Amino acid sequence: MNYAQYETSDWYEPVAAAVAALQAHKDLSITVVHADWCGDCTYTLPLLKKIVAALPAVKIVDVVVDRQKNDPQGIAKRLGVTNIPTLVVFKGAQEVGRIVESPKATIEEDIVAMLAK
């Protein structure tokens, strides 16, 4: 993933218990729909970058959209994304949940909650 255009996440410390819980999951992937012009993306994506650094087994699919939420591969449209950033979490081929614009708690805690359902 190329998050170089986004702000730093130096201040953020992921929730260790949530990261440990995610490390136990196999076949986990996150499709990240974002844009460099999106204000919420400049806050959220550096945090995600720091979280996934501790989760090398998690596959990240990076989808950059234009202002109409279109991307060259049509992934955002197929997923029905209308707001960004949107993190679509998959366990295998099954979507287990989404974080749209901002998490309820933290990104990592929200993903753990999705997987617990």
TrEMBL record:
InterPro entries: Thioredoxin-like_sf (IPR036249), Thioredoxin_domain (IPR013766), Thioredoxin_H-type-like (IPR050620)
Residue span(s) of domain Thioredoxin: 1-117
SUPFAM superfamilies given in the database record: Thioredoxin-like
PROSITE patterns, alphabetized: THIOREDOXIN_2 (PS51352)
One family name in Pfam for this protein: Thioredoxin_9
UniProt xrefs under CDD domains: TRX_family
Protein name: Thioredoxin domain-containing protein
Organism: Spironucleus salmonicida
Lineage: Eukaryota, Metamonada, Diplomonadida, Hexamitidae, Hexamitinae
